[in-house]
Amino acid sequence: MTVDEKQAAHRIEQLRDEIRKHDLLYYDEAAPIISDREYDRLYKQLIDLETRFPDLVTPDSPTQRVGGKPLQAFEQVSHLIPMLSLDNTYSEEEVKNFYARIERLLPNEKIPVVIEPKVDGVAVSLIYDNGRLRQAATRGDGSVGDNITQNIRTIRSVPERLRDMAPKLLEVRGEVYMDRKGFEKLNQERKKQGLPLFANPRNAAAGSLKQLDPAIVSKRPLGAVFYGTGATKGVDVDLHAEIFPLLKKLGLPVTECWWLADSVEEILDAIHELDGIRHNFAYQTDGAVVKVNSFGQRERLGFTAKSPRWAIAYKYSAERVETRLNDIVIQVGRTGILTPVAVLEPVLVSGSTVGRATLHNEDEIKRKDIRIGDTVMIEKAGEVIPAVVEVVKSKRRRDAKPFDFAAHAHGKCPVCGGPIRRDPEFVAWRCENLHCPAQTTRRVEFFAARGALDIESVGGIVADKMVERGLVREPVDLFELKVEQLAKLNLGTDEAPRVFGEKNATKAIKAIERARTLPLSRWLFALAIPDVGKTTATQLARFHDSIEDVAHSQLLRDVLEYHEKEKNERAGIAERLIKAGFAKPSKSKADTDRSIVTEVGPVVAKSVVDFFASLAGKKILRRMKELGIQPKSEKVSAKKSAELPLAGKTFVLTGTLPSMTRGEAIEKIQALGGHVTGSVSKKTDYVLAGAEPGSKFDKAKELGVRILDEAAFQKMLLSS
Predict the structure, then answer these.
(1) 248 catalytically annotated
(2) Residues 595, 716: one domain?
């Protein structure tokens, strides 16, 4: 292999990997991260290299097959004739080359072509047997697609039964779309419900078709347009132009306009004419399709591995306009991620006025060197989502200011004023305050975590989607969920659904019901009260009867009052706290004022009192009461507390225990009256050490503190 071939082979593999990644995002997840133009550019590079080096072509190359696997949520069905995709171009020169190429392949023949709108929808294939709709399927991988018959039946414009003299078999090809007005209305309704908006009509149509519940699909403003056939019996047509009147006669909706041409000049005239009227159609179009009219000529022209030689799709360039970027503001998402948004001088783009555009993240701003006051180029990705494509640096003003994310935010969340930090995993800034009003998902995840209420299966993507779909707005909403609701939860995208399922939903609901009976300490921790960790939650639960008792705790108010009073006014408060077992006289030799050491300090006491006095805290108490949730009390009397086997004993944990988690060990110690701290000192009674202990183990040996392994610890528990 020559040096050139080696370089080509390396680049070909890079391109294949990149194209496969984008195929997965586009076809399987319906979440593309690059534009069609950029994808086509990569694809053309690969074709050019494989043309120059044919020995490097492999059967698994993206150029040799149609991308996109069918989803597993639907029954898989085979197409009677494969649904191949078309070659795309953005160049009129390539349209000329296409026509010149077919003229070379069919010399001395007149080759009429049809020009029709390229509908930006979801490709489908419908089969009619003796005039009755038998099956509808998505394109899938070109050979096998998803059976979406029930969903197609909800589209009123698609007939269940064909009119007139229907053929014995008709496999008809077309696109399902969402009309523009219906799309806008749907997004308005979703906005009112607090649901995420669809990016564009195509995504909305794709997500609707892949819903497992036809009742949902029936409420979506879907339409269909048909423009071709697959397998047929009893259809006597030889020209593509004859398909349109035939389908219309049978009662199928068809392309509303098309052109016949037999020269390059006429083809380009038709493309330009279509561009002038396409924005008036009910459906979105992103280009024009040029097809050889004669089926006989098509047969002689044949196919490549991926597409027919007798057709090409010309795509119109997305409209770009210049405008001024007046400011950059920061929005907070439900997971705490801070997103920069460009505030623009309002400008008309692709038929609508754009005033804002996402800037994605801090790195994107730096990469494009976007500054406040810049003139920027705006494009609507998919003709719907506004995007800042680039800065027009030749028009940069002297006073254009670079954007410093942290300085702009003043180091605080714009919603709650809490601290923010840069999250390296997401290359983004995040609000640290779990109780920020803009966040919901993180609160739900924390609430359901193993160390909190241990609600199985409610975390990560499940929590995110419950919030996104509007099932949960606050953590306690979990207790109002039903199996039927949760079973239908879509863990995928609207374009590529993946339902939670009844089995998983049943397990989750059982775990939610079990959480109702968990002890008070677990609930106090789950509520994410500032400064209340697991140990503090356990200490509070041991001295209170209920969560209401904690909310109105006289003990906590006594702690605050004790630290606010002058020393000579503290005696009565100290006596009350000691009598309740919530404090002990200080043993410090340096303490000559006979002060006390309380179970929790003034910082924790203030956090708890303030939390339950807040609107959020009051709402939680009210909701828990309405839901009949009464966490079990772990309160013990001062006398009984002193009598517990490990009362007054202090433990420190280090290393990994063989058969129990650190959390389980802590719970066992605390249940028997012991305390767990994070550092070893002369006052430490025991160090419980597992595998690979850290510096705490060495410190214990140095100070002569007794070290227990798990076996000795278990023996201690049994004898207690």
Answers:
(1) no
(2) no
